[in-house]
Each structure stands twice: as C-alpha cells, then as structure tokens.
Design a protein that fits this description.
Largest sheet: 8 strands, mixed
Structural class: mainly beta
Shape: globular
Number of strands: 18
Strand content: over 45%
Helix content: 10-25%
Number of helices: 2
C-alpha cells in the first residue's frame, strides 16, 4: 500500500511540474504579480521594429521554474531574474503561442525580485494594434493603442487590467523628434548618432492597456491650464493652426468632467494627440 502511495505521489509531482511548464490557455494564473515596470525603448519612426528592455518587479506566490507573461510578436533576446538577495538567475525562453511567452530557469525562483527582459518588437504600418506608425506629408509618426489586450505587443508584461502598478518610461528617439508619454518629461539628453534620450516621470498605478507613448516631428500647441494642470494639443508637423477649436474646447470639457465627477483631474498634465486617421480615439 505504501509503495503504491509513493508511486502515486511521484506521478502527481511529475504531473504538477509538467503543468507548470505549460503555457496558459486564456489568462495568466495570478501566481506572479507585477509591482512596477521600468521600460527603456529605442523608437525610430519609419523603421519597422523597435528594441528595448523592461525590468518588472514581481512577487511570486510560490517558487516557480517558469514565469509566464503576455507577449505577442515580441522577440526576446535575453532574460534573467534578480532575487531580493541580489542573486541573478539566467532565463531561457519558452514558446507560449500567440499571446504568451515563458521565462524558464534551471532552478526555481521565488519571493520578490526583478525580471529583466531585452527584446525587439514590431512597429506596424497596417494595423493600429500595439505600436504602429502613420505617415503625414512624408513624415512618419509612431503611436500606441493597447486597449484591450495589445500592450503585449509593446512589452512582455502581465497584460490584464487587474494589475495596476506604476510605470516608468524611457525613450531613445531621433534628436529632431518629439517624444511624449502618460507623464511629464523628467529629463532629456543628447546621444550619439543624432539620437536623444527622454525620461518620463513615474506614473500613478496604471493597467497596461492605459500606458501610452508617441514619437514624431510633432507640433506642440499650448492649450493653457485648468487649475495647475497644463494642457496641450499635439499635432503632426505644420498642422498647429488646425488645433484652434481643440485648444479652446478642451479646457471647457475638462472642467465639465471635473464638475460631473466631483473631483479634480488626477494627473499632472493632459496631452491630446492628433493622428492622421479618422474614427479613432483612446482615453489614455
């Protein structure tokens, strides 16, 4: 009887181990929770790919041999996990199909740590899902659209709305372009090869689908302030004059929303970005 029990337990253990290596079918299982993202991307309008890294602070509910994330059309170049003690575990990539990628380790990782991933993604010219680009007057502009489940096209992440955590975005872009994101610019500096780096302030906790950035030769139109909140309309190059109505209407609309909800606008700035495309909007 005991030998049968031992065999059954071993088989059960093997089955559980095998299950842990299987990609999720629809949703992540919740055993790994993100607490912070730091994203560093090189984005050049007109190019068909972007490169970068994402450092995700996570908490693991139990030791894990593989961490599954959402990732679509992402090529992972390198991955590792740094535990709370500073020990670094090298990871390898497990194919999870269209929507998932796994980072596996030779020994299980546990507790709190930082998952580091270097990767490459696509800038689409035919779809507005994820990171995409549009052309206006022979100039390319890069935008993002992550709702409902396309943040996974921009970074390997936990792409479900229940995960609301701070994001810190850094963009390396052509020196002559403008880069914007959810939060105000923190700093910028020149880089080699006619590039610059733009660092943005850490965001309030956000689900992945509300993260946004844009890069291009934009014109910046000052729309004044509502209270202490600066307002801007961001248009393609040479189109600033077309923003007159938006510049006048946006402060009035925002005031109506503040009055309706009974709270002030909760963020540090409001940028309204114009795209050369019709019937398209996103609340981020």
């Amino acid at each position: 009887m005991r030998s049968c029990l031992l065999i059954s337990t071993a088989c059960l253990g093997a089955a559980l181990a095998a299950t842990s290596m299987e990609a999720p079918k629809l949703r992540l299982n919740g055993d790994v929770k993100p607490t912070h993202y730091a994203v560093d991307l090189t984005v050049v309008p007109g190019q068909d790919t972007f490169q970068g890294t994402v450092d995700t602070k996570v908490n693991l509910a139990a030791p894990a041999s593989v961490i599954w994330l959402n990732a679509t059309e992402i090529t992972i170049r390198d991955a590792s996990f740094r535990g709370a003690s500073g020990e670094v575990s090298k990871g390898s990539v497990e194919n999870g199909g269209e929507d998932f990628a796994g980072i596996s380790f030779t020994r299980p990782v546990s507790g709190a740590g930082t998952l580091h991933i270097a990767y490459e993604g696509k800038i689409s010219r035919i779809s507005s899902a994820g990171v995409f680009q549009l052309k206006e007057d022979d100039r390319w502009y890069v935008y993002t659209q992550f709702e409902p489940t396309d943040a996974r096209r921009a970074f390997p992440c936990f792409d479900e709305p229940s995960y609301k955590v701070p994001w810190q975005i850094t963009l390396h872009v052509p020196a002559g372009d403008v880069a914007v994101a959810n939060t105000p610019e923190l700093s910028h500096a020149a880089e080699p090869d006619s590039m610059k780096v733009v660092r943005f302030k850490e965001s309030k906790p956000l689900p992945s689908y509300l993260v946004a950035f844009a890069v291009g030769p934009f014109d910046l139109v000052d729309a004044g302030k509502l209270g202490k909140t600066p307002l801007r309309v961001i248009t393609p190059h040479g189109k600033a004059a077309n923003a007159k109505y938006a510049r006048e209407a946006i402060p009035q609309l925002l005031k109506l929303l503040e009055d309706y909800f009974g709270i002030p606008y909760p963020y540090e700035k409001l940028d309204s970005i114009v795209m050369p495309i019709s019937n398209f909007a996103m609340e981020n």
